[in-house]
Amino acid sequence: MNRAIVLLLVVGLVWPAALDAQGSQFGVRGLGLPGLPISTRAGGTAGASGLFDAESALNPAAPAAIFRPTASFNLAQHWRTSENIFGAASGKDTNFPLFFTAGPIGERMVGTVSASVYTDRTFALTLTDTVLLRDEPVTTYDTVRSRGGLTDVRAALAFQASRRVAVGLGLHLITGTNRVDTRRSFADSSYNAVALQNELSYAGAGVSAGFTANPGGALHLAGMVRFDTDLSIDRDTVSLGDVPLPVTLAAGLRWTPSRRLSLSSQAMSRRWGRLDQALRDRGGAGAVHTTLVAAGLEWGRNAQRPDQLPLRLGVRWNQMPFPVAEGLETGTEFTAALGTGLLLGGGRASLDLSLERVWRSETVAFEERGVALRLGVAVRP
Question: Residues 6 or more apart from 55 whose CB is under 8 A from it?
Fold first, then answer.
């Protein structure tokens, strides 16, 4: 790999109740809240340009457009307010949704390594109840805290098959841990508090393939398919068995009538319903197949330098795979995003910003509103 650097950067089923200052209530069930492996630049269009974005980890063919070694880092800060039948709470958290590195291999191939959020299962829940002890009612205070989730580590090759077509293949390692702390205390001080700590560990794998194509003129097409194996789950040193992971299909359309304007759309189907019976067998609320649709644009304010401080806008609607409560329909998420970016050092570095407003709901019983500020930094030596 000529001057190439491929640097692996990895950092790295309870009841509904009132949230306590962190995490999303929609990340409590199943494997957590799924992530979208896109860069901050693609985030400015709400993910609509993700299948075409060379520095996202969604389509293994997209990095074929990279011509020099690249390393990027993405940071996200979240603020949210959650409401449910037990009350309301506000929280915030910081995560690192995507690390990405790439380098040319010869003239027509690019190798990439990335690490992204597959699912996030960080939350804190509290519940107050009354139990009978020695024939007397005693108030209890239960707290469940979870930290962790699943990380998707991908190694991929993108090949420029012709001037108009690129193809790509990716291999995925799905790993992660989930530390769960459960504590019960009593209003009657004559009873001692009890605590339980568990660590869940996960291991799985997958393969993805994709393409990008320019059939002619301003029209561009992209597609991706991904197959993931079963996910093995261990609690401490005890195996809890395997659960199937979803098959993912995605297609995108982009129209660039001029250097200054690019319009993108994307549709994705994830077969999370494959997990339904396995989660119910373990006492969960099941899972459903999900659909995602997104549309967005990027407009360059400067005709001579369209990549300098462009305006990016986008909207996204998607279903969430894991119902919060038994018997309820799965929730939905709507996101509105805007962003911009700046090239530095003659294109050898870039800085991207995006701001997302998110609304999540599952009937009227569970609702959530949030804001996410994302920062992306890329270096191309």
Answer: 39, 41, 63, 66, 70, 72, 100, 102, 376, 378
**Strands 194-216 and 165-186: what pairing?**
antiparallel
- Using a pLDDT cut of 70, give the percent of the chain over it: 93
Where do the DSSP E strands lie in the chain? Answer: 18-23, 33-34, 70-84, 87-105, 109-120, 123-133, 136-160, 165-186, 194-216, 219-228, 231-235, 238-243, 247-258, 261-270, 290-299, 311-319, 332-344, 349-362, 366-379
Residue 304 and residue 263: Cα distance in Å, rounded?
Answer: 19
DSSP state of 230: P
Q: Which long-range contacts (CB under 8 A, 24 or more apart) does 300-306 make?
A: 300/259, 300/260, 300/261, 301/260, 303/259, 303/260, 305/343, 306/259, 306/260
First CA to last CA distance, the chain:
14
- Quote the CA–CA distance of 211 and 225 in Å, as a whole number: 10
Distance CA 197, CA 316 (A): 37
**Residue range 27-36, pLDDT digits in tens:** 888 899 999 9
Are residues 57 and 41 in contact, defined by beta-carbon separation less than 8 angstroms? no
pLDDT tens for each residue of 362-374: 887 889 999 999 9
Sort residue 189 into left (φ over 0), alpha (ψ -120 to 50) or beta.
Answer: alpha
Q: What is the DSSP string of 165-195?
A: EEEEEEEEEEEEEEEEEEEEEESSTTS--EE
Compute the distance between CA of residue 376 and CA of residue 40 in angstroms, rounded to an integer. 5
Q: Is the pLDDT of residue 303 over 80?
A: no
Report yes or no: 33 and 24 within 8 Å, Cβ to Cβ.
yes
User: What residues form DSSP beta bridges with 74?
Assistant: 98, 376
Q: Which of 176-185, 247-256, 344-353 has the highest mean pLDDT?
A: 247-256
